[in-house]
Design goal:
Helix content is 83%, strand content 0%. The chain is mainly alpha-helical. It has one domain (3-11, 24-98, 114-211). It starts with a helix and ends with a helix. It is found in: Cell membrane. It is a multi-pass membrane protein. Pfam families: LysE (PF01810).
Length: 212
Amino acid sequence: MTVTQAVLAFVVVAGLLTVIPGMDTALVLRSTLTRSRRHGVAALGGIQVGTLLWGAAAAGGAAALLAASQTAYRVLTIAGAVYLVWMGVSMIAASLRRRVEDGAVGAPPPASGRWRHFGLGLGTNLMNPKVGVFYVAAIPQFTPAGVNPLLMGLLLATVHCVLGTLWLSAVLLGAGVAGPRLRRSGAVRWLDRVTGGLLVAFGARLAFEARA
């Protein structure tokens, strides 16, 4: 198997995983619909930086250590679960407190909030140990004989980022069209509640799996 063949095979696997709706899609949708396309881009950027970091960790052996150590995996999983539940509850609580005046609903959101959305995307990705385990399993299978695993891991992570960026950009552009209308209708409060509920559910599932 050549490097080109390995990358093409990985594109098929990673592409299928990318288009399956998950937390990444929900976060980009939420950031775009509730704030703006720029906030959606910030969330997308945080997610992809997290993907690159996991790929580098897996290629460097850190994620392999995580996968081999049951204790380390459980600690990170529980920490991730707590983080996700906290973020989800915060979103739901904020949606219940939010009272937007009719004249300010369509006002452009402040640029300062973009870093928060970037951090949300980054944190959600980094606190999910399954991403690291995926790379630990994928890198050996898609590394041709004689190729440096570290370089191959970084290459696969980059390919994964490109696929994710293309898909989430399409989601972002579509959401950007509907965003202004939804913000005027006050539907953003329900979107925050749905996204927050998904984060809580995903965090609870991680916590349950950590105890298993």
